[in-house]
Amino acid sequence: MIIGLLNQKGGVGKTTLAISLADALAISNKDERVLLIDPDPQQSALSWSQAKDVSPNFSVIGLSTKTIHRDLPEISKNYQHVIIDSPPRVTDIARSVVLASELILIPCTPCVFSVWAFEETVSLIQEASVFKPDIKYAILINRKSSNTLISKSLVKTVKSMNIKMLKSMISDRVIFSTASLQGKSIFEIQGNNQSKKKASEEVFELMEEIQEIYNK
User: Which residue ranges form the domains of the chain, and what is each CATH number?
Assistant: First the structure.
């Protein structure tokens, strides 16, 4: 699978999601190799992997270039799964991520600015689909708010746009930021607290839904 995470707005949790998904895939498919590509000039995911006390379950490389789609076949030839993060507001790189991916996830938070940004992101994907007509894409509700009115309003807005929305949703949980601060993924946090359990379940549910879409 080659999965791109794309939203022209920053702060929607793309990098945290990319790390969580890559680790979930590595844990679930122990005989298969997973690669996370970090094209963001800030290289947050790459810095995260380099700062860790132990190597992650997956490989991470920095690739801040608008030729990702051309470079990927050679780079990924020894990997079974590839996750591509993306920077906000860098259209050339975003377009290359779309052309490189088989499935694009558009993380969207319960915020009106996030909704405006994913409309722009969808337009970018549709533009690139002229060159890659089989590209699949879907909205993922990330950092789902405990305020059910806000979350329901977001879901209603997405459905009104006739864009596929994943059933899986990732809630806004402190454990994600805790893991990032500790240089870990949520699966590496010690203990068996309820927050970790719920967050892990949501990420695995997301991974399974992605695999179902990919295999259709």
Answer: 2-205 (3.40.50.300)
